[in-house]
């Protein structure tokens, strides 16, 4: 008999006697807890899906059968069972195991998964392709959390799949939560007898609900779904954080995303709380704005915790709206609020803004509505990797007519920038990074509302060059310029509309270095080059920013250093520009 701790392939799993599966599940759960204790990670959902993942690999034959997980939060057991056990201690680290699913890492990762709600559509496409290529005996399986049912894309896929002649399998992993408790009518539906009627009306064979922690219930239901000749949905009820008391006791998120920790005498000991974050600084500024103006409301797509809104929700329960994993709806809902006199602030992660760009353009910017987009996690995000890097928000938003785009350097900038955004006649956006707030130098010039111009941080009488920076990298630029004589530093503050007088003055130095934590295609560097071309100025310009590639997971500080986006790298770029 193969010891459960040595099972690291689907073939080895299928060779186990069925009586050994619970032992394997407990071994996997202990390993997930240990790995996350060392390196952190998305713990709660993976703990809740251990038996489900084991059962899926028992019944279906990956990679011939395609297991398409919605996001990768629930898939750590899948990683352990598909050849990555020995490397799991490198999870989310530079060059290590990916934070979510990645087909480049394993043939068993049928599709990359970093954002929610895509699994049904992707799996249906795979089922169609399998049928067309004569692989009709194989199955495409979409593993969807019930949190994914708060997003419209899942329903678009279910609508199409229910009328499909192909035997798609949808496994609904229902734990009552996304990051925190689910919102909306679908959550109530899944807890009632109407769930069967709903899915059967869509055209699915409905199986369940079954216990997601009982192999006696899971295996027959999944086997029946595999035999089905039409779309089938297996409704599985699980417990997020199962088997790890600190996660089970976390009423807010059930241990959704936890940093490194230690277990001492059965108790969880986390590292001490660090400095305040940009997210917390923005939430504090938003709270002050809500106190001052009853029209200001907050909207978030299932990111109450990540956007530091839990306290505001307690203070303003009717003015903080969690709309579920539904970025498009969040922006359109905000447009409706603004159309009737409210001043909504829609808090999105930069990477999730991509999902709502049609609503931003068509429903907010085109009618000129006063919606403020707060873009958290702008720039490098570290361990969450390529799917979550906030690289493209500036390039997406800068071309939109009438949208004002701001970036704070320090936490003390938040109140003035938010007040300016809310006071304006139309749409605005603020972008700020993931991470802790930098210390503010004693001679750092403050922001005072309204913010209408760029801010000179250093301006010698006869500068030989100028660094034009946006966001917190302006502090690194300031430090770099102090080691290179006669260099000016301009904090752009506004990417739209540009402070053209300040940019013209920067170009008049003859050499300009732009520094931004975003793609240089369409961002700050592009804006400077466009302005120089428009005025006929011909400065020597060098652009520093994120590369023309997707940046993978790793330590964000180390990545900035490698990309030359720290003070030393900026100083080196300045010297090279001056010597050219």
Report the strand count: 19
Count helical runs: 23
CATH-assigned homologous superfamily of the largest domain? Thiamin diphosphate (ThDP)-binding fold, Pyr/PP domains
Query: How does CATH name the architecture of the largest domain?
Result: 3-Layer(aba) Sandwich
Structural class: alpha/beta
**Quick one: biggest sheet?**
7 strands, mixed
Strand order of the largest sheet: 9-8-10-11-13-12-17
> What multimeric state do the chains show?
single chain
What is the total domain count? 3
What is the class of the largest domain in the CATH system? Alpha Beta
**Strand residue percentage:** 15-25%
Q: What's the CATH topology name of the largest domain? A: Rossmann fold
**Arithmetic mean of pLDDT:** 92
- How far the N terminus sits from the C terminus, by CA atoms, comes to 69 Å
Indicate the low-confidence ranges by residue numbers: none
Apparent shape: globular
Radius of gyration: 25 Å
Helix content: 25-40%
């Amino acid at each position: 008999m193969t010891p459960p701790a040595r099972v690291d392939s689907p073939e080895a799993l299928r060779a186990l006697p069925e009586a050994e599966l619970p032992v394997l599940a407990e071994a996997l759960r202990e390993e997930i807890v240990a790995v996350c204790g060392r390196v952190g990670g998305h713990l709660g959902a993976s703990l809740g899906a251990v038996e489900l993942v084991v059962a899926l690999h028992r019944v279906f034959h990956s990679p011939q059968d395609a297991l398409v997980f919605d996001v990768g939060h629930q898939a750590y057991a899948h990683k352990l069972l598909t050849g990555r056990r020995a490397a799991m201690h490198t999870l989310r680290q530079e060059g290590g195991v990916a934070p979510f699913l990645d087909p480049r890492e394993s043939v068993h990762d049928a599709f990359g998964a970093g954002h929610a709600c895509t699994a049904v559509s992707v799996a249906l496409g795979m089922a169609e392709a399998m049928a067309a290529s004569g692989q009709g005996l194989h199955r495409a399986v979409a593993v969807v959390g019930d949190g994914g049912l708060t997003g419209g894309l899942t329903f678009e896929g279910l609508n199409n799949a229910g009328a499909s002649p192909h035997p798609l399998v949808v496994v609904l992993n229902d734990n009552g939560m996304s990051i925190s408790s689910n919102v909306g009518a679908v959550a109530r539906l899944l807890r009632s007898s109407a769930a069967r009627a709903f899915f059967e009306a869509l055209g699915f064979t409905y199986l369940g609900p079954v216990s997601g922690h009982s192999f006696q219930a899971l295996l027959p239901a999944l086997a029946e779904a595999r035999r089905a000749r039409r779309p089938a949905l297996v409704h599985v009820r699980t417990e997020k954080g199962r088997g790890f008391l600190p996660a089970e006791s976390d009423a807010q998120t059930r241990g959704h995303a936890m940093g490194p920790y230690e277990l001492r005498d059965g108790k969880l000991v986390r590292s001490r709380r660090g400095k305040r974050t940009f997210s917390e600084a923005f939430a504090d500024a938003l709270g002050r704005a809500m106190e001052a103006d009853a029209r200001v409301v907050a909207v978030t797509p299932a990111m109450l915790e990540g956007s530091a809104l839990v306290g505001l929700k307690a203070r303003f329960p009717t003015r903080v709206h969690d709309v579920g994993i539904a970025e498009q709806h969040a922006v359109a809902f905000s447009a409706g609020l603004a159309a009737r006199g409210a001043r909504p602030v829609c808090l999105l992660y930069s990477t999730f803004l991509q999902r709502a760009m049609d609503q931003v353009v068509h429903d907010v910017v085109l009618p000129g509505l006063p919606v403020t987009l707060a873009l958290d996690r702008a720039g490098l995000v570290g361990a969450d990797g390529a799917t979550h890097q906030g690289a493209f928000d500036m390039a997406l938003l800068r071309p939109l007519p009438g949208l004002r785009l701001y970036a704070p350097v320090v936490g003390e900038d938040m109140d003035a920038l938010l007040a300016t955004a809310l006071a304006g006649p139309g749409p605005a956006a603020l972008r700020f990074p993931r991470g802790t707030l930098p210390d503010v130098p004693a001679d750092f010039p403050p922001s005072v509302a309204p913010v209408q111009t760029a801010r000179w941080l250093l301006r010698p009488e006869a500068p030989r060059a100028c660094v034009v920076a946006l966001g917190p990298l302006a502090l690194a630029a300031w430090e770099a310029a102090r080691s290179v004589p006669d260099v000016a530093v301009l904090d752009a503050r506004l990417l739209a509309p540009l402070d053209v007088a300040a940019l013209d003055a920067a170009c008049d130095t003859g050499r300009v270095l732009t520094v931004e934590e975003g793609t240089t295609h369409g961002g700050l560097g592009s804006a400077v080059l466009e302005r120089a071309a428009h005025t006929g100025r011909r400065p020597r310009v060098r652009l520093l920013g994120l590369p023309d590639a997707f940046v993978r997971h790793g330590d964000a500080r180390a990545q900035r250093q490698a990309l030359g986006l720290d003070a030393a790298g900026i100083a080196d770029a300045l010297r090279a520009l001056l010597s050219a």
